[in-house]
């Protein structure tokens, strides 16, 4: 099946972001994509100073548009993420819609991005956001898909749980920056893919040199052998790739690490 990653140029005008995103979703569908994914924070600039201003309920304006375009195009739409307000708290949330427009999954970013790299970048999502507390998996006729958002990708245990749950594709909307992007963006994706013998896709906003937070871009798809099979540059674009589940099955048969784990010696388990 064909997967499309929309590396969107995100502006400060929410209505423009929504219109542009929906237009590119339609374009991807017209080119045969069955699963289409948007980037992290696709409807607003990324930054703790913006989350409260742009936050919405789910369902709300942005997710209603996503539901409508998913139904119109009869596709599975992974709605990147938006700042979500619920019960007085803010979350970084990814909503997924099916071909009938129904909400299939809602993933709240589990690991908040609180880092301090002296002389390079300091950022603290927890100043405004609350963490999610659950794993998020949804079914398609093609395969089972696991969701994470950006910093979630650094936590190998989360990907292992998804693998145990039968996922064959992991999708991470993310916005790595100009420090962490060149260092770890591709490396982490290849690590998660080869460790769990599955496909990993990441969807970044396009790079905007004028933004207060500059995203690395380079939306990427990695196969279960750890090979990069599709990759964007820094500009706005749509990345297409065909996901071959026969290849996944062959790799798991050739190197059967999933059945050779020493569960008598170690294990990763989901607590709730």
Automatic annotation (TrEMBL):
Highest rank taxon of the organism: Eukaryota
Catalytic activity: 2-oxosuccinamate + H2O = oxaloacetate + NH4(+); 2-oxoglutaramate + H2O = 2-oxoglutarate + NH4(+)
Gene Ontology MF term list: omega-amidase activity
Keywords (A to Z) from UniProt: Hydrolase
CN hydrolase domain boundaries: 1-245
SUPFAM superfamilies cross-referenced by the UniProt entry: Carbon-nitrogen hydrolase
E.C. number: 3.5.1.3
PROSITE patterns in the cross-refs: CN_HYDROLASE (PS50263)
A biological-process GO annotation: glutamine metabolic process
Record carries keyword Hydrolase: yes
CC annotations in GO: mitochondrion
Stored InterPro entries: C-N_Hydrolase, C-N_Hydrolase_sf, Nit1/2_C-N_Hydrolase
Entry similarity comment: Belongs to the carbon-nitrogen hydrolase superfamily. NIT1/NIT2 family.
Protein's name according to its UniProt entry: omega-amidase
Organism of provenance: Urocynchramus pylzowi
Gene: Nit2
């Amino acid at each position: 099946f064909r997967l499309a990653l929309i590396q969107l140029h995100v502006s400060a005008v929410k209505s423009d972001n929504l219109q542009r995103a929906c237009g590119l979703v339609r374009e991807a569908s017209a080119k045969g994509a069955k699963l289409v994914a948007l980037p992290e924070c696709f409807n607003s600039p990324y930054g703790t100073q913006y989350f409260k201003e742009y936050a919405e309920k789910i369902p709300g304006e942005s997710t209603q548009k996503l539901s409508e375009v998913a139904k119109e195009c009869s596709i599975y739409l992974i709605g990147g993420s938006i700042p979500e307000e619920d019960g007085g708290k803010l979350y970084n949330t990814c909503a997924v819609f099916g071909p009938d427009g129904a909400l299939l999954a809602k993933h709240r970013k589990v690991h908040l991005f609180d880092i301090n790299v002296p002389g390079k970048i300091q950022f603290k999502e927890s100043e405004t956001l609350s963490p999610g507390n659950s794993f998020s998996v949804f079914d398609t006729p093609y395969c089972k898909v696991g969701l994470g958002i950006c910093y979630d990708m650094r936590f190998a245990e989360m990907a292992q749980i998804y693998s145990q749950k039968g996922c064959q594709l992991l999708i991470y909307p993310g916005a790595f920056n100009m420090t962490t992007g060149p260092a770890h963006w591709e490396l982490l994706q290849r690590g998660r893919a080869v460790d769990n013998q599955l496909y990993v896709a990441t969807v970044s906003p396009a790079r905007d040199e004028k933004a207060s937070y500059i995203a690395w871009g380079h939306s990427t798809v990695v196969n279960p052998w750890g090979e990069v099979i599709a990759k964007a540059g820094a500009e706005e674009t749509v990345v297409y790739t065909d996901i071959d589940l026969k290849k996944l099955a062959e790799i798991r048969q050739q190197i059967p690490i999933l059945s050779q784990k020493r569960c008598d010696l170690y294990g990763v388990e989901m607590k709730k």
